[in-house]
Structures are given as structure tokens and as C-alpha cells.
Design brief:
- The chain starts with 9 loop residues before the first helix and ends in a 13-residue tail after the last strand.
- The strands form two sheets. Strands 1, 2, 3, 4, 8, 9, 10 and 11 form an eight-stranded mixed beta sheet that branches.
- The mean pLDDT is 95.
- It is 20% helix and 27% strand.
- It is globular.
- It has helices at 10-14, 35-44, 64-68, 84-91, 102-114, 177-182; strands at 22-25, 49-52, 72-77, 96-99, 118-121, 135-138, 141-147, 151-162, 167-168, 184-195, 214-217.
- By secondary structure, the chain is α/β, with parallel strands linked by helices.
- It contains six helices and eleven strands.
Length: 230
């Protein structure tokens, strides 16, 4: 059996994103955030996007570039606290923001990747986070119904990828990336290094290539990656 070579130019892969798409973006702060793919998406220009990301990064980096370019209509996240620009956009109604407890966001994405329609959680019962959500009762306990999350496209940062798309992540840069790689119809990866198929030992594969559609070479890390340069 011949495994396909999924390497391609970054602009070709990003060109699949359309106006109105939902885009998952990996990362927790800087580690694991695909900074270069984000810049490529800004240059591509697709707008009215729903972005799913753990955080809004800081002003002038990461997804803040998408916010500054006006390409984001809705942001599903856990916090904006480090990005005053994102907070201002939310407060003035220029973007819609849906907040989640961090574990709930991760589990909703995991459910989307596993083909589960929703999860049940008692986190947020009686708080603003429960507003507008369905509540069910089981064994005398009330639970919020938290719908699973899927995306049209996921943008992923990996330390290593082989040509088929098997991925290895470095330390905490793994964070949301493996979950998002399972929960999107199209998965685009920027890799610090691309190696031949078989060069990543099976036990070192954190995300299997069957979930990946495009692998793009990252090249030299920009200043935005500074805190994780090794």
C-alpha cells in the first residue's frame, strides 16, 4: 500500500478556507499556536469566521492578527484576559464571544472528534455560563448539555511531521492540537521539520496521519515563537 505524500505549499492549504468557515486553532498561549498559518490566513482574507481557540493570545500576536484584520465574527474560547484588543472588540459588539471553562472546551472538542453529539456537565449550573443552555436531570442531579464542537478546518502546529501527516508535538505544545486534529473536516499542519514516512517511531506519534490533510513546512521560527525556541 502506498501512503500519499501530504506535503504542500502553505498558501495552497490555507486556500481551502472559505468565508463563514469555522476554524479551530491549536495552542495554549504561544506553545502550540500555528503563528505562521495564522499569518497565511490573514493574507488569504477569508472572513466572517468562527474561531475556536483556547485563548486570544496577546495584542499583536497569534489570533490577534485575525481580530485586527476583521476576519473573525465569533470566538469560542476560555479567556481573553491577556488581549485588551479582543476585550474591546467584545465590549463594543464587533465580535461575539462564547466563553467555556477550559476543561469543557477541551471535552467538547474531544466529543466532536469522537462522533459524540454532546457532553453533560454540572459545571456552570446556576451561573451566566448556563444561560440559554439545555438542562437535563439524571439521578437527581442537574446537568448542562454542552454540544460537541467540530470545525471546517483545524490549524495545527507540530514539532515534527512525516510526509503522511503523522505528528509529534514538543512538550506542552501538544495541548489542544491532537484533539483539534480529530475534530475538523480538513486539518492543516505547520511543522518545524518534515521527515520521511517511518522516521517518527510509532510510540512517538501523538496524532496519526489519517487525521491530517495537508503538511506545510514552517522553516525558520519567527519572533512570535520566541518563548518556545529550543
Amino acid at each position: 500500500m502506498r501512503f500519499p505524500d501530504k506535503t504542500c505549499a502553505m498558501d495552497t492549504a490555507i486556500g481551502r478556507i472559505k468565508d463563514g468557515d469555522t476554524v479551530m486553532i491549536g495552542g495554549f498561549g504561544v506553545p502550540g499556536t500555528p503563528m505562521t498559518l495564522i499569518h497565511a490566513l490573514v493574507a488569504h482574507g477569508a472572513g466572517n469566521l468562527t474561531v475556536i481557540k483556547n485563548d486570544a493570545n496577546e495584542p499583536g500576536m497569534g489570533i490577534d492578527h485575525l481580530l485586527q484584520s476583521g476576519q473573525v465574527a465569533r470566538l469560542i474560547t476560555t479567556h481573553l484576559g491577556l488581549n485588551s484588543h479582543a476585550i474591546a472588540l467584545m465590549n463594543t459588539g464587533q465580535i461575539e464571544v462564547e466563553f467555556n471553562a477550559q476543561g469543557i472546551l477541551a471535552e467538547r472538542i474531544r466529543a466532536g472528534g469522537a462522533g459524540i453529539g454532546a457532553i453533560l456537565s454540572d459545571i456552570g449550573i446556576g451561573t451566566e455560563l448556563a444561560k440559554g443552555k439545555q438542562v437535563v436531570e439524571m439521578a437527581g442531579v442537574s446537568y448542562l448539555v454542552e454540544p460537541a464542537l467540530r470545525a471546517d478546518v483545524a490549524l495545527i502546529h507540530a514539532d515534527r511531521a512525516d510526509t503522511f501527516g503523522n505528528l509529534a508535538f514538543a512538550a506542552t505544545a501538544r495541548n489542544f492540537n491532537p484533539l483539534m486534529a480529530m475534530a475538523a473536516d480538513c486539518v492543516v499542519v505547520e511543522a518545524e521539520s518534515i521527515v520521511p514516512l517511518g522516521a517518527i517511531a510509532p510510540d512517538d506519534v501523538h496524532s496519526a496521519g489519517v487525521f491530517v490533510d495537508h503538511v506545510t513546512p514552517l522553516g525558520e521560527l519567527s519572533k512570535e515563537y520566541a518563548v518556545v525556541q529550543r
